[in-house]
Each structure stands twice: as structure tokens, then as C-alpha cells.
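WARN retry 2 of 3 for item q-0093 after timeout on previous attempt; input resubmitted unchanged.
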Amino acid sequence: MNLVYSDSQGNVFDHPDFLALGRNAEMITEIMEDELIPLPEGATLVSLPFTRPVGIDAETGDMKLVPGDYHAVGALLPQGFTRLLLPGYVKSDKTKALPLFGYTAVVWKDEAFYVAARLTDNPYFWNPIHCDVTELESQVKTLTAKYPENRLYAHLSNCALGYECLTASNTFLQRWEGAVPVSYSCNAGCFGCISEQPDESGFVAPQTRMNFKPQIEEITQIMLEHLRTPDSIISFGQGCEGEPSTQAALIIPAIKQVREQTKMGYININTNAGLTDHIRGIVDAGLDLMRVSTISALDDHYNAYYKPRAYTLKNVEKSLRYATDKGVITSINYLVFPGVTDREEEIEAMIEFVRRTGLKLIQLRNLNIDPESYLGIIPKARGELLGMKQMIEIFEQELPDVVLGSYSHTPKFYASDRNTTMVL
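OK item q-0093 returned
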């Protein structure tokens, strides 16, 4: 398997004499054949600025930098695929941070690109190729014309057409999981926040956070338009907003009003679940699904990344337990990172957390971050690094009643033969 690298113009090459390497946190490591799958449809190859590619000289067996002005290359995976290794590289400028993406090791073998990843969910629904731009533009015009005073539709039109957000696009295409953002504020200061970054962070937020407080009518209009089919999902908590439960005073009456008019579809919230009292009110209003974002079940790691304001990981656990006990299908949005999530102590803590909270689903989501910056803020490993592949296998063995996936599903998914949909 040959090293893949790029020049300063972004042209991609495979090295005839260097074998590819990956990274597990700081450790540069060999890539195993059973860690590789063909580059998925919808994946993107990107050049990593401020880096030098590292490979193994096939003739000498020595680890070497590729000489010249060249950069490492990584793959950005579509939903449904979990990264197993980072690209093999070293920083050429340690003062520079990589943009907030989830870089995956990529190699060239058998005349094709392969990535160190695993299929963990059906990629069909979140493959950009299935979003027809012409149809989307038409639907944006239709719904913004139908609701000219609705600021949420205007906001989401930029998310769909400008940022190419698939959840926002679904809102206009009126299918699958759609978005209804509600919050301009947050009770956490996430290190890798994609909608708001302090000037001194060194990161550029790839999205702009909403800057207004919507009215209940604006929220219910979007919900009622979207909840038209049995399998539709409308979700509070998007990348373009803060923490939705801070706006419980809007969400609770909106859910109640919508459920007075239709029982169709499912109402979901993507949340950090730190505001337990607010979550209880939202659950009691008629919530169907809840996905809680977390990066760890260990307090010191969780706090280092999320920087929670006036809540703790224990509050998150209480919120999940309450929702589960009330019949809500609960899951976690588990931000995973090779060399961290697969630490022995992280795996043990997460297994116990899942058992205590009664989760139905672990959504494995590749953390979009500059690796060096992330590793610089979290606690050092205390136990062995087991590898992402083994971590997934341990979860499957220790949590047989919990589904491993990548995104939210309707209840019938849990009763079906999921293996029939897991195809490349």
C-alpha cells in the first residue's frame, strides 16, 4: 500500500517507493490490511496544510519524510463511516492549526484509493450525491415564498445552499431528518465548536451561528411542514446554533402545539443535555428521540473539551436516564478520535456510562479537529491504546443490545434486520 501525498497546488500522487503510514494520536503506526476499505462514494481527498508526509522506505525499511515541498493527504469521510487512523504526517509549522475536519488515513493499493475506516451505518441517506441541487433550489424558493416572514427558513436556506448542510437541505426537500435551529446561545464552550470560536483559538468556525431568537410560530411552521410522513424526523440542535435546550421556553410550547395538530413523524433533539430541568420539560412535552453529544465518559476529559458552564457530566447522565425512563429513544453523538477514544480507560468508562443510561444507540462520529491542538488540552493516556477497530469490537461484545451507528433513526430501525441495509 503506497503513500499518498500532494504538492503545493493540491495535485495528488502515490509514492512508488514509500509505504503508507497512519497515526494513532501522536504515534505513527503501520496500517493493517484489515483496517482498509475502498474510498467510499462521497468521500473527499484533501491536502493537509503545514504538514510533511511520512512513509516507510520500502527498500530500507526506514521511516522517512517525503523530500521536497509536499504535504500529507487525508480523506474526509461521509456519514456512515468511522475513521480508524489519522494520516501519517508531522507538522512543518507547529504554530499552525489544521482546519476543523476529520482527517482519515488514505493509501493507494490495487490501482485504487483505500482508507483506514469501517462502515458503521447505511451511508445512503447522508451521501451528498443524493441531494439534487436543482430540486433543492426549487424547494428553497417554494418554502421561502410560502413563509416570507419566517426567519428560520431564510436562515436555513443559506445553510442548505451556502454550507451544503444536508440536514438543512432535508428541511426543504421535506424528507428524512430535517433541521429546526432555535438557539443563539450555549452553556458550553466546546474546544472544537463549528459555529463559534474565540479570536484567540486559532480556528476558523466553518459555519456562522444563528443570531436571532425565533418565534414559536416560526418553529411550528417548519415542524408541521416536515412532519408529513411516518418516517420523518425534525431535529432541534444543529451545527449552526448553540445549545437548543437553553430555549426550552420555545421548544416546549412548539412541541405541544405541533402534537395537537399531528402525530406524524418523530421529534428529536441534539443536545449536550446539561440542563437537566429543561430536558425534563422538553421530554414531557412529547419528545420522541434524544441524541446527546459527548466526547468521553470521564469527567476530566469531558470538561477539557466541552468547558461546561454550570453543569457536569453527572447532569448529562441524569438527563439521559430520565429520557430513557420516559420512553424516549436515546443515543449519544460520540465524538471519536484514534488514539484517544480507544484508550483502555475511555472504553471502560463509556461501557459503564451506556449501561447506566440505557442508551439504544451509539452514534460514532469522527471528531473534526486539529489533532495536535486536541491532544494538547486533554489528559494523557493512563492505559493501553487498543486501536479503534478493537474498541468497536469490544463495544459489540460488551453491549450486545446497543446499536453502533452514525446517525439518528426512527424506532422501526431497531426492530429490523439492520445488516440488510449495511452495504457499500
